[in-house]
Design a protein that fits this description.
83 residues; alpha+beta; 3-stranded mixed beta sheet; 3 strands; 34% strand; elongated
Length: 83
């Protein structure tokens, strides 16, 4: 059985009437990794089709002299190129 938005909240509300509204906010999934397997990105894209707010960030550490840096690139959803 698949539910979306308010429809998904109805069974939860009937089960637990005292549950605060703040706990029933839309789901948000943020993944951060150096590399993603194909199964992970496919699952994230599939969840996105059902209204789950999903983001994947690719992180790459690098060093310049004594300084350490972390490059963070959003890969899902794709950001439009900036000119």
């Amino acid at each position: 059985m698949m539910f979306r938005g308010a429809t998904a909240q109805a069974p939860t509300r009937s089960h637990q009437r005292d549950l605060p509204q703040v706990l029933l906010k839309p789901t948000r999934l943020i993944l951060v990794a150096a590399h993603y397997r194909k199964e992970v990105t496919n699952t994230v894209l599939w969840l996105s089709q059902f209204g789950v707010n999903c983001q994947c960030f690719k992180v790459t550490p690098w060093k310049a002299g004594d300084e350490l840096f972390l490059n963070v690139e959003q890969i899902i959803p794709l950001k439009p190129p900036t000119s």
